[in-house]
Amino acid sequence: MSQAGTLKLASFNINGIKARLPRLLEWLEETRPQVACLQEIKTQDEGFPAEAFEKIGYKAIWHGQKGFNGVAILADGEQPVEVQRGLEGDPDDAHSRYLEADVFGVRVVCIYLPNGNPQPGPKFDYKLRWMERLRTRMDAIWAEEVPALVLGDYNVIPHDRDIWDKRAMADDALMQPASRDAYARLLGDGWTDAIGLHHPRGGIWTFWDYQAGAWPRDHGFRIDHALLSPELADRLVESGVDKAYRGREKASDHAPVWVRLRA
């Protein structure tokens, strides 16, 4: 269908923005989303390559952290207006995992949800607490009745159909009942999983490990999601995964996910 009159918003766990910058710029120029949410930029704020994005027309806000985590929101020709960075509810949480902005008339939330491994243990407990804090913030956004989209790496495989072999990661934090239940509660609150809606039979992956020949064997799973508020779900045209970018030289282990909305 024609792309005129639509708004494309995407998410890409880039797995190190400095190491993957050529691939990231390539993807932006070739697919040209109006908004791109990035995760695992793995750089301090002062090391973020804003100038490289400005050269191709993107303006950015970012929330960095040395060597780990880190999120950013890029917009094509428009400056994202920051609403919030970080989640409330845990004053000791210093991880850079949450960034929220208004851009193109949409509330865009970029998240990098904790992995939670090994489980059980403190890292898994942190993951579940973080998901509950996220739900609280999403409830507050819902109450504002703004068109909103929560994009990013959720580190949750929602269903068995979202992984190449459910036995492969049965003990992993990404597939635990508590992780899946926390994700399901977000959908139960009324948010729409765009990729899941358009691919109800599953088999759509967003991540392929660097190990064990996962990419050439297509042994992947879906952990990058786009959740839409009712105001945006009504405008949803299509959604997908830019799978081919996972196969390029020095690629991230994730592929970008995207949604297209009626403007």
UniProtKB/TrEMBL annotation:
It holds the Pfam family Exo_endo_phos. Its cofactor is Mg(2+). PROSITE patterns: AP_NUCLEASE_F1_4 (PS51435). Keywords: Hydrolase, Magnesium, Metal-binding. Residues 10-254 form the Endonuclease/exonuclease/phosphatase domain. PANTHER family: EXODEOXYRIBONUCLEASE III. Belongs to the DNA repair enzymes AP/ExoA family. This is Exodeoxyribonuclease III.
